[in-house]
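@channel sequence for tomorrow's demo:
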Amino acid sequence: MAAATLSAAMLPFPGIPYGPAPAWVFPAFELSSYAMLALCLAHAIRRGRIGSLSYIFGGLGFGLLLEYLEVRSHSYTYGHFGIMLGHAPFNIPLCIGCDWAVIMYVSRIFSDALRLPWQAAAALDTLLALNVDLSLDVVAYRLHMWHWNWPPQYNALTTQWFGIPYGNFVGWITVVFGYSFFSRWFERLIVRHDHTQHHRIAAWQFPLVAALSLIASQLVLTFNEVLLYPFVARHLSITSPRRFSLFAALLLITAVTGWARRPRPRRTIPSLATFAPVYFHLFFLMLFFAFGFYRESRWMTAVSCSNGALGILLHLLPFTKSSAKAREAIQGSSTEPASA
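structure tokens (generated this afternoon):
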């Protein structure tokens, strides 16, 4: 049955007037997640970089750990996907961990191609990942891919970001920025140090970087959620909406400042760095309209369309420019006279 309005007795969750998603939706999303992860792995293998593979598997492990901890804390529960890890009600879908890995990896290879300073690159990674999640979360929540456990006094569709807690986006910011930042930092400390000393880079250093980045990021996330965020909310009235706005502004300033300082020319942006996020945006925008969620709120529709369009434009514009420059370079080299 389509995700349409049903009688209250038939609804999966109170306060959400949408029935179960059609049978094809979950498998389509799940299979596409595995396909995206396979493309990322193939890209990393083709590059011949153990560091890229380590970054992907570190992101996969980090994503699964995060999801398990959030489910155990009763923040939300998952619908039933094909491959679930653990035991109900605390089981988690494997595909969600894959999506964490995919989003963090393609964001990184995108920012790497732009040759931003490493701190600015971590900020851009975070903004790109956040842009994807803003498109994804609103739709997936209404399709019951996962369910946020709002107390009865809250409206499940209009509270905070159209039913999604702002704390979720603050968590995305902390996780993606932390993993990207610490990965780049540990690479500079461990891998690049050896390279500058003319030592051979050992293969084990890259998994070590991924493991240290995961641990450091998780420690920061735990400290923030257990100690820092409650303290600033209680004593400074900096609640999750304000934290979200503040962090987003700081990330934007950091990324823009780094863009102004980047060296030129930039590298060619890998097609995967454009294809994966554009796919996520288009897939969930299609579901947004196909199942009538746009009827719920004009404001939500405007924001969802604007965010999706912005994400697609941000990924397509640099890619088309870098592709055009690459073609010009090839054509220019082909027209040069052969040397005697």
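heads up for whoever presents: The beta strands are 76-78, 84-85, 92-93, 146-148.
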